[in-house]
Amino acid sequence: MDCKGGSAPGARQPDRALQLAIVGSGSAAFAAALAATRAGARVTLIEGAPVIGGTCVNVGCVPSKILVRAAQVAHVQARHPFTGIAHCTPGVDMAVLHAQQQARVDGLRRAKYEDILDRNPHMQLLRGWARFEDARILAVALPEGGECRVEADRILLATGSCPSIPDIPGLSDTPYWTSDEALASTRLPGHLAVLGGSVVALELAQSFLRLGARVTLLARSRLLSRLETDIGENLVRVLTAEGAQVLTHTVPEAVEYDGRRFILHAAGAELHADRLLVATGRRANTERLQLEAAGVATTAEGDIRVDAHMRTSVENVYAAGDCCNQPRHVYVAAAAGTRAAINMTGGDTAMDLSVVPAVVFTDPAVAWVGMDRREAERRGIAVDTRTLPLDRVPRALAAFDTRGFIRLVAEQGSGRLLGAQVVAAEAGEVIQTAALAIAGGMTVAALAEHLFPYLTLSEGLKLCAQSFVSDVAGLSCCAG
């Protein structure tokens, strides 16, 4: 690293350790840095944001799941299903709730990022925004002004993603929220309009609804449009029953802000809201990098192209996490970062994305893994499927919450499990069992024979597997 005033850590020296530059400081970046230093490399992390840790811990997974759980508690107080226990209207203080949320975020960032950096002498942080000068040299714009240059043997791009904002007339001139601002809010809006129909939009829409805001959700297509139709339809019913207005196949033609409220022009009518949350997807965070200077190839959507070894189109440049053409999940990012580091330091390992479970933390939650019926059809695979309503699952009956279903997708003939979709209160706690079964090549017959604890939601997987050959409604309790 060549900085004004002389050399700094990372400068090239003869007979020295392998030098890695990692652009970013989130999950992929830190997983890579830890794996690389274990392999004997020296790592310079380059980060321009005010805090390290990336999206997940700061403005993504962690604060959103705190808000989701807090909203669930409020909802249970007001609308739990048990007779004999009085309902009550919860008092919600968003400022106090946010302070608790932020304290947990700060604590996790300190424990999982800042303390790790402080303890590792072979890992250092350079504050600034990086861009390529060529395939081996990064120019870093320093926060105090000026630039320094980092020359590394290998470079990992782990810059994550940022909200993607649709091109709607007038929108850019308004003080709309992204998920960042929504999660930082210390006041509950009277009426929140939400643009989007996927993960972030649904989780935050339901959370604000349950905390006491009036919510209108506008989705360009249907809810969770990448999944089978009945999954999104189930969530429409749930949100509507809780008091939300859900407008599918609706995009505002224009947006205004009059200093007090937002005015959305949609379907020939006006919708007024106190706040507008735009949650219409995310895009790779690569604009500052000047990838063209290094020759790093991207997809049509702007994602960095990587192979299974996390290599880009440039020999010494790798990428991992949300900035590249991989599923945008933090656990994928961390796994990819580790594998990238192994390959950057002389190893050879590939990223297996054949079985990737995913969860939407609504209530009921939505979780899936492997193929659904549509994907199997696209691949020319003949399948059998079974869908088990939750009123056939003892745990759901005992909890008085039978919203949702469990669906298994199996290959015709062999019975090999290919996919699972779960809509249930704790679907995220169930889906990994299905993921392991798929990864292990299990058949639905083998799954049906396994022992599952009674009165667990995961027992629904066994019951659904049994339904391939039996009518589970006619089985006795805990039928094996």
Structure, described:
By secondary structure, the protein is an alpha/beta fold. Helices cover 30% and strands 23% of the residues. It contains 13 helices and 24 strands. The protein has helices at residues 27-38, 54-59, 61-79, 94-119, 179-183, 199-211, 229-241, 330-344, 373-378, 394-398, 431-439, 444-449, 459-466, and strands at 2-3, 6-7, 19-23, 42-47, 123-127, 129-132, 137-141, 147-151, 154-157, 161-163, 191-195, 214-218, 245-247, 254-257, 262-266, 269-273, 275-278, 282-284, 317-319, 358-360, 365-370, 383-389, 405-411, 417-424. The strands form seven sheets. A five-stranded parallel sheet has the order 5-4-3-9-19, covered by helices on one side. Strands 20-21-24-23-22 form a five-stranded antiparallel sheet. The longest helix is centred in the first third of the chain and has 26 residues, at 94-119. The chain is globular and about 75 Å long. Residues 3-12 have low confidence and may be disordered.
Strand-helix topology:
Layout: E1 2-3, E2 6-7, E3 19-23, H1 27-38, E4 42-47, H2 54-59, H3 61-79, H4 94-119, E5 123-127, E6 129-132, E7 137-141, E8 147-151, E9 154-157, E10 161-163, H5 179-183, E11 191-195, H6 199-211, E12 214-218, H7 229-241, E13 245-247, E14 254-257, E15 262-266, E16 269-273, E17 275-278, E18 282-284, E19 317-319, H8 330-344, E20 358-360, E21 365-370, H9 373-378, E22 383-389, H10 394-398, E23 405-411, E24 417-424, H11 431-439, H12 444-449, H13 459-466
Parallel strand pairs: 3-4, 3-9, 4-5, 9-19, 11-12, 11-17, 12-13
Antiparallel strand pairs: 1-2, 6-7, 7-8, 10-18, 14-15, 15-16, 20-21, 21-24, 22-23, 23-24
Helix pairs in contact: 1-8, 3-4, 3-6
